[in-house]
Amino acid sequence: MGLFIAQILTGLANAGALFMVASGLSLIFGVTRVVNFAHGSFYMLGAYVGYSLMQVLPGMVGFWGAILLAGIIVGLIGVIVEICVLRPVYSAPELFQLVATFGVILVIQDLALMIWGPQDLLGPRAPGLKGVIRIMGEPVPQYDIALIVITPFVAIALWYLITKTRVGTLVRAATQDREMVSALGVNQAWLFTGVFFLGCALAGLGGALQLPKGGADLLMDFTILGSVFVVVVIGGMGSLPGAYLAAVIISVLNVFGVTYAPQSTLVLMFVVMVIVLMFRPFGLLGKEEIAGEHGQVGEPERPIKPAGNRMRLLVAAGLLILGLLPFYSGNFAVVLVTDIMIFCLFAASLHFMLGQGGLVSFGHAAFFGGGAYAAALFVTYADTPMELALVLAPICAGLAAIVIGWVCLRSTGVYFAMLTLAFGQLLWSLAFQWGDVTGGDDGLVNIWPSDWASDNDVYYYIAFVLCIGGILLLRQAAHAPFGYAMRAARDSARQAEAMGINTKRIQWVAFTFAGIMAGLAGGLFVFSKGSIFPNELETARSFDALIVVFLGGVKTLSGGWVGAAFFEGIKDYLTRFEYWRLALGLSIIFVVILGPEGIVGSLRKAGERFGILKVPEDAT
Amino acid sequence: MKRSTFLKTLVGAAALSMTGIAALAQSGEPIKVGEINHYKRLAAFAEPYKKGIELGLEEINAAGGVLDRPLEFIFRDDQGDPGEAIKIAEELMTSEGAVMLTGTILSNVGLAISSVAAEKQWVYLAAEPLADALTWSQGNPWTFRLRTSTYMQAAMLAEQAAKTDAMKYATIAPNYAYGKDAVAAFKEVLTELKPGVEFVGEQWPALFKIDAGAEVQALERSKPDAIYNVTFGPDLAKFVREGTTRGLFDGRTVYGLLSGEPEYMEPLADEAPEGWIVTGYPWYDFTEEDGANKIFVDAYQARFNETPKLGSLVGYMTAATVAAAIQKAGSTDGDAIRMAFEGLDVATPVGDITFREIDNQATMGAFVGTTALKDGAGVMTDWTYLNGADYLPSDEEVAKLRPAE
Fold first, then answer.
1. What residue intervals traverse the membrane (chain A) (predicted)?
2. A252: pLDDT strictly greater than 80
C-alpha cells in the first residue's frame, strides 16, 4: 500500500513539468494555430537559463527567483522568435509555420552548444528541500511534494487568467474566430505575441522546475517533444484541464509501467493515445474542430493543369542531364544524387496525400522505413534477390498503409496526424524492441544489391528509373479523375459526398498509394546503403519529409521533390562546416520568410511577375 | 615499438615542437584518413575524442610522419545517422582520397560503416563503438575495433562482483542494444564464476528518457543485495540523484559500467556516488610510475588547457594505431593496411595493445576502481588497469561467434 501511494506521488511529481510545457504548446496552438515544434527547445532553454541564474542567485529566494526569471526570459526569447520568424508567415498555408519552428530548433541547438558547452549540467538541488519525508515507510523526496503542490497552483492561475480576465476572454475569442476578433478592433498581432510569450514562459518554467530532478543537456529538447505532443492530444488541443489530466494519466501510468512491465516504456504513452483517440477522436476534454475555420488561409489553390510544352521540354532536358550524370561526374556525385532521388520520391509520396488529399501525416516514415525493413527482412531470412525484394517492399508498405489508414482516417486534422505519429512510433518500437528478428538498434546489415547492380553507376540508373517513374506516376494520379476526387474531398467533404464520392474511401486509397510509393523509396534506400536501422522509422524521418514538402510548396504539384532536392543538397553542403545546424536553421528561416508559398510557389510567382511564365487567365 | 622507445619518441616530439623546428614530414603529400563522428549530436563525447586525435597527429607529424609523409584526418559530422555516415564514407574514400576510415561512437553507425567497409573493401577502425556485434556476430575482415568492448568491461565488473557475498542482483540498463549486451554479458560471466547468483529485477528505461523516481522505486521493490548499472549521461545523473535521495544505495554495492569515466563523473560533481565499483579513467591519479599515462595526460593538459576524458585517450590511441598500421603496411594500399592490422602491436599510453587476428578486437583494457569523493568531485580510488586480453572468451567460442570468412 505504501509503495502504491509512493508510486502515485512520483507520477504526480513527474506530471508537473510535463503539464507546464504541454499547456504552453496547447495555448499557442489554440490561438495562433501554430504547431510549435520548437517548444522543446524553449523547455531546454528554460533549464539552461535557470541553471545559469542559480549559479548567481544564492539561497532559497535565489533558487525560486531563478525559476521565475528563467520563465520570463524564455518567454521574452519566444517573443523575439514570434516577431522575427512567425509574424511574416502567419498568412501562409496551414502548418507552414511548422517549417519555421523547425529552423528555430536548429538555431537554438547550436546557440546552446556555443553558450553552455557540450557537457551535461547537473541541476542544483532545491535549498531546504534536499531530503525525503516518509509516507507509510516509503521515502518521498521533499522536492517531489513541492512539485505536486506547485503544479495545481500554476494550473489554477492559468485557468483563472483564461476564464476570468479580459485578456483571457480575448484569447478564447481568438481561439474560436480570429477574424472576428480583429474585426472588433483587437490588435491581433499583439494578442498572438502575448500568447506566445505565455506559452514559451510556461515551457521555460517547466524546464527550470525539473532542474533539481535532472539537469540541462543538449538532447532534452527532442526527448520531451514526443510526450508533450501526446499529452496535448490526449487532453484535447487547446484544453488546459485536459492537458493537466493527460499529464497526470501519462505520468502515473508510466510509473506503474516501469515497475510492472519495464520494457513497455517506449510505447506505453502511444498505445494510450491510440486507445483514447479511438473512443474520443478529439481527446479527453477537447472540442470538435470547427470545419473550414482554418482550412484555407492564404491564397486559394490554383486548378491543376498538365504542364505546357515549354515546361515539358525543360523537364526532359533536366532529366537528360540527370540521366547522363555518371558519364561526366565523379563517383560521389552519383552516390549523392542517388540519395537525393530516393528522398525526393519519399517526399513526393507525402506531398501527394498532403497536397492533393489534405491529409497531414506525422508518421509517413512508417512506410519508408517499413518498406526498407520488409526488403531487408526478406533478404536476411529468405535470401530474396534484390529484384524481388524491390517489388515486395512497396507491397508490404501498402499493406501496412491499408491497416494504419483504416484506423487513422477515423479522425481528422491534427488528431489524424497524431494517430499516424502513434503508429509510426509503434512500428519503430517494434523494430527497436524485437531484437531477435530485426536486430534491434544494431539493425540489419549486409543487404546489398545483386551482383549486376552492385556498381554505383548501375544502381544509380535503377534508382533513376524507379524514382523518376514513381514521381511521374504520382503526378499522373493527380491529373486523373482520382486526383480530382481527392481534391474534392479535401476542399469540401460534404459537397463531394453529395456528388456521390465516397470521400473516406478515396482518402484511404490515397493514403495507401502514398504508402506504397514511400515503401518503394525505402526499398531503394536499403539497397543503396546496405543496412537498415530503426532510425529510418523514427518520427524525425517523418518530419524531414514534412518539412521539405512545406519548404517546396504544398499548393504546387512539384513542391515535394523540389523541396527534397533543395534540402538534401544544402544539407550535404552545410554539414561540412562546424556550426552547420545554425547555418541550416537560418537558411530555412530565410527561405520561409522570403517565400511563404514554398520554393515552387514563390518561383512561379516571381516568374509570372517578370513575364517568364504566363499568368493563367483565371488567376487575376 | 617498446614502451621505452615510445617514450623517447614522445620526448623527442615534444623537444622538436618546443624548439620550433618545422616538422620533418613536409616532403610528401599528406596521407589522409576519413574520420566520421557525431560531432554535434554527442558533442560532449566527440570533442575530447577529436582533441585526442589532434594531439596524436601533432606528435606523429613532428616526429616525421608516416612513410615520410604527414598524416592528416578529415573530420566529418554524420548527425548520428547511419545512412548519412555511409554517404560520407563514400565521399571520403572515393573523392577525398582517404586511405581508410575511423570513427563513430554510436554502435549502429559503427555497424553501418563496417557493413559498407566490407562490401567496398575499405579498412575501418571502429574507435569508440562498444557493440559486441561489431567484432563478433557481424564481424568482417575489414573492420577493426580499438576500444574495450561491452563484453570485456562487463566481464571485468562481474569478476569483481563474484568476489563478494552478494547473491541477489538487480540490473538497470538503457533499453537498446548496448544496454542489453551489457546485462547479458554481466549475467553470463557472473553466473559462470559464481553459480547460484540470482537476478531479482531488471529495469529497462528508454535511453535518455529515464523516469528515475519510478526506476528507483522498482529496484527497491526487488530488494537486491547489489545493483548493476549500465545507464550513462543524463540518465545516470538522474538515477544517482533519485537513488541517493531515496536511499536505494544504502548498504548495497553498485557496479557501474563506464560510470567512472570523466565524461559521466564530472557532471555529477559533489553528488558523485561513493563506493561504486566502476570502469573508468583515473587520469588525476597518475604519477611518474605510470609512465606513458602520465606523459599523455600532461601533454594533453598543456596543449588544450583542459582535463582529458576517456574519449581523449581513445582519440589519441586512434591516431597512434592508424600511424602504426600504415607504417607497418609500408604503403597506403587498402589491402596492405588490412593485412598490417592483423596482429598489429601498438604502443599506447595504457601500454602495448594488439589487434587480435582471430576477431580484429584490440586488447585495450580498462581501469577498474571504487568511486569516492575528493575535493568536491567524484574520483576512482584503489584502481587497477586490467588487460583486455584476459577478459575475452576462449578462442573456440570466439570462432563460433564470428561468421565464417
1. 6-29, 41-57, 63-86, 98-117, 145-162, 183-206, 311-328, 361-382, 388-407, 414-434, 458-478, 508-527, 547-567, 579-596
2. yes
